[in-house]
Specification:
The chain is mainly alpha-helical and 495 residues long. The chain has one domain. Strands 1-2 form a two-stranded antiparallel ribbon. The termini are far apart. InterPro entries: DUF112_TM. This is DUF112 domain-containing protein. Keywords: Membrane, Transmembrane, Transmembrane helix.
Length: 495
């Protein structure tokens, strides 16, 4: 009941004219950016983060949430129309959506995706309202050993799930941890990896790292592999769904959040894994299996609903534990820190207006997303006519302006370029970017919690495993590390 009352108060905050404007602007910008291939929601939030420093926190985070959801839907638009996913979560939408578009049913595919995002976002946000306060109240009792165990789980999980190999994931994690070490030791005041530079004594700003790895790295990568596209956008009519389409998709819309929300809330969750699982589930349960691969509408509706629900799931971990499970959550966590706000168990008590205003704005954003994107789908396809050289030149310009705005120091531009080159190198050798971002965000906190736990136990390593919660987490870590070996052993026994 307290959650319901708080949510009502949150709607009072979210429905003010100014916050409604930020929500609409976020949804519009997010969708436009998601439509452009290669620019995901994480890059969008990272680029706009310096611009929002002048806003009050509630309005800024309402806009960021709108960008998050809007970019996820925008990515599925190009995935369906042009077989070009705007971001990784939209890859599955191309499997069935693009054949539908080629068969002249692009409008129905876009409508199924739009309604799927609406249904998944609504159900996911309801679960967020129900579960987040409970998780926060339980997290108050979590101590330093428990927090360190959770962060180790995040590090191990993100390196195991992402990338073409665990070695590459671990290498990306080490890159981020190294960048996070730059600056003064918080406990001793000793300089680390500053090379005698006073400008590096405060460390490398997370915003510069995020913009460098995402925006600069991606722009350099595209420039190195630039190919002019001669394909024309597929024409899209008025999106609508017939009764037969609704009968085939309504169960998929409801099943998607049950898969997407839990994966969004766990470390290294995100939308990529649940969208694939949702697609496999729909294929197994569908009465029209022969249509899969040729344009089955269930294969669009389920994964898109799962992707939207996973976005709500990521907010549970970020708001209650301060633990980012996706790249977007990592950038948003950096934004919280820029405003001097620390997400965690006490956030719901210290910043109730911001938290519940943000949650309420998610409901508002879902309605705005559906209202804006059903009639504007043909317009988004035309945005793809922007030549790539102009597009990425603009990205480089705004990235440089944003990095300079962080500290007003010219050295920040040099750091931005260096980190951008690191991002380019990571793409060149197949290193996923997300582990590095999460390591930069969580690395200093993990170090602090580790040293705090060892101080409490007088330097004894047993102080890291002296609670049931930490032991349970380390068991999960061990299972994650051992599973590939067990799977190989089972495969050999079968043969």
């Amino acid at each position: 009941m307290d959650s319901l009352n708080s949510l009502v108060d949150g709607f009072g905050t979210a429905l003010t004219p100014v916050n409604l404007l930020w929500a609409a602007l976020g949804v519009l910008l997010g969708t436009a950016i998601g439509v452009l291939p290669g620019i995901g929601p994480a890059m969008a939030v990272a680029l706009l983060l310096p611009v929002t420093y002048g806003l009050e926190p509630t309005g800024a985070f309402i806009m960021f949430a709108g960008i998050y959801y809007g970019a996820m839907f925008g990515g599925s638009t190009t995935s369906i129309l042009l077989n070009t996913p705007g971001e990784s979560a939209a890859v599955v939408a191309a499997i069935e959506g693009n054949p539908m578009a080629k068969a002249g049913r692009g409008a129905q595919a876009l409508a199924a995706a739009a309604v799927g995002h609406f249904a998944g976002g609504m159900i996911g946000t309801i679960l967020l309202v129900v579960l987040a306060p409970t998780v926060a109240s339980l997290a108050v009792d979590i101590g330093a050993p428990d927090y360190f165990a959770i962060m180790v789980l995040a590090f191990i999980a993100v390196t195991s799930v992402l990338g073409s190999s665990r070695i590459r994931g671990l290498a990306s994690l080490l890159v981020g941890l190294t960048i996070g070490l730059v600056g003064l030791d918080q406990m001793t005041g000793q300089q680390r990896l500053t090379f005698g530079s006073l400008q590096l004594a405060d460390g490398v700003d997370v915003v510069i790292v995020a913009v460098g790895l995402f925006a600069i790295g991606e722009a350099l990568w595209v420039a190195a592999h630039l190919r002019r596209s001669t394909g024309k956008p597929i024409p899209v009519g008025r999106p609508w769904l017939g009764r037969a389409d609704v009968r085939r998709t309504w169960k998929s819309w409801l099943r998607g959040p049950l898969i997407g929300f839990p994966f969004g809330a766990i470390p290294a969750g995100g939308a990529e894994i649940p969208t694939f699982l949702s697609y496999v589930t729909e294929k197994r349960l569908s009465k029209h299996r022969d249509e899969f691969g040729k344009g089955a509408i269930e294969g669009v509706a389920g994964p898109e609903s799962a992707a939207s629900a996973s976005a709500a799931g990521t907010l549970v971990s970020m708001l209650t534990l301060g633990l980012p499970t996706t790249a977007v959550a990592a950038v948003m966590l950096a934004a919280f820190q820029q405003y001097g706000i620390q997400p965690g168990p006490l956030l719901f008590e210290r910043e109730p207006e911001l938290v519940w205003g943000l949650i309420a704005s998610l409901f508002v954003g879902m309605v705005l997303l559906l209202a804006l994107n059903l009639p504007l789908a043909p317009l988004w396809a035309k945005l793809l006519r922007i030549p790539r050289p102009y597009l990425y030149a603009g990205i480089l310009f705004f990235a440089a302006v944003g990095a300079y705005a962080v500290g007003g120091e010219a050295v920040d531009l040099v750091i931005l370029l260096v980190i951008g080159l690191i991002g380019f190198g990571m793409r060149r050798y197949g290193l996923p970017v997300l582990p590095a971002i999460i390591a930069v965000i969580l690395g200093p906190s993990a170090e602090q919690q580790l040293r705090r736990a060892l101080q409490i136990s007088d330097g004894s390593v047993t102080g890291l495993v002296n609670t049931p919660f930490s032991v349970t987490v380390y068991v999960v870590v061990a299972l994650i590390l051992a599973w590939p070996l067990v799977r190989k052993a089972l495969g050999r026994n079968r043969t």
